[in-house]
Design brief:
- With about 325 residues, this protein is mostly helical.
- The chain has eleven helices and three strands, in the order H-E-H-H-E-H-H-H-E-H-H-H-H-H.
- Helix 2 runs antiparallel to helix 3, helix 3 packs antiparallel against helix 4 and helix 10 crosses helix 11.
- The longest helix is centred in the middle third of the chain and has 35 residues.
- The termini are far apart.
Length: about 325
């Protein structure tokens, strides 16, 4: 009985179908991207918290995104890097670790949407109610919005995984590079209708509320900009909103691609690649887009590098 219990708690993960040469190349590229994600996102968070001039709601809310990107990349990339070095027979994971990983994967994905929703609200208040911005977007409001974004994602994902772990298991093969909710409930031979219904509802509510709120917010911003004759205000509004919308569109397209590919088992290899890219490309792009496009952040980064350069010259 102990041996059977042990075997049932060990799951085999499916790997990417790559040649040994391609595996080495993928490992190096993925490692470099992971280092960039960690350094750039953590660097931005440290820069924002250490610079008094950047203690503004927009940047403090952006820290949620950077932290979430580091969280999401750390869940997946080290795991994939390890598997690239292992043979098929060595790619295994304990059931508890699989459930934990699935929970974190969906928490990261959900928080990506909820954080962008509160950032859209911040832009709406800044552009549509500029005179009341400082009274609405207080430090307390920033904290409340951040807690709401993470709390909502946490509750949705807890229910999602809770419905999956209640099922008994009869399989031990995970047809994915890493564990997600679908991987967990597909281990069961019981009816998963409830899981599929809630999973569909979860996806519709998350993407629907995200798309609906962001669309409504930017339509109102567009109306304000069109009715305003202040060219400076319009230019600033378009610049900050374009940055946010770029990140949102990339996230939305990535999410839709993965959801669609889940419906086609014959495209499992494409889905695996898309899933990894979603956890690699988005965190890297977010850091680049916000780090280089936001003037204040760019100026602070330039100032830091300039001080370091001067210090090195004085040291020599």
């Amino acid at each position: 009985m102990e041996n059977q219990s042990f075997i049932s708690d060990i799951l085999i993960l499916e790997g990417l179908k790559v040649t040994p040469h391609s595996s080495s190349t993928a490992f190096i590229l993925l490692l470099l991207v992971y280092i960039f994600i960690m350094v750039s996102n953590l660097g931005l968070v440290i820069l924002i918290f250490s610079s008094r001039s950047l203690h503004q709601p927009m940047y403090l809310l952006f820290c949620n995104m950077s932290i979430n990107d580091v969280f999401g990349a750390t869940i997946i990339i080290p795991h994939v890097l390890r598997d690239l070095l292992l043979s098929d027979s060595e790619r295994y994971i304990h059931y508890i670790s699989c459930v934990t990983q699935a929970f974190c994967v969906h928490l990261h994905a959900s928080a990506s949407h909820t954080v962008l929703m509160i950032m859209a609200f911040d832009r709406y208040v800044a552009i549509c109610n500029p005179l009341r911005y400082s009274t609405i977007m207080t430090n307390r409001m920033v904290v409340n919005l951040s807690v709401a974004a993470w709390g909502t994602a946490l509750v949705l994902v807890a229910i999602l995984l809770g419905l999956s772990i209640r099922l008994s298991r009869c399989r031990s093969f995970v047809s994915n590079l890493f564990c997600d909710n679908a991987s967990v409930f597909k281990l069961s031979c019981e009816s998963v209708l409830i899981n599929q219904v809630y999973g569909l509802g979860y996806t519709v509510v998350l993407l629907g509320s995200s798309l609906g709120s962001v669309t409504l917010t930017y339509l109102k911003i567009a109306v304000v900009c069109l009715s305003s004759k202040n060219k400076v205000l319009n230019s600033k509004a378009l610049h900050t909103c374009a940055t946010h919308l770029t990140v949102y569109v990339i996230l939305l397209v990535s999410a839709f691609i993965i959801v669609i590919l889940h419906r086609f088992p014959q495209l499992s290899d494409h889905r695996k690649v898309a899933s990894v890219l979603g956890h690699v490309a988005l965190p890297a792009l977010n850091a680049v887009i916000y780090g280089l496009q936001i003037k204040q952040v760019r100026q602070r980064i330039t100032a830091v590098f300039h001080r370091n350069k001067v210090a090195l010259k004085e040291g020599n």
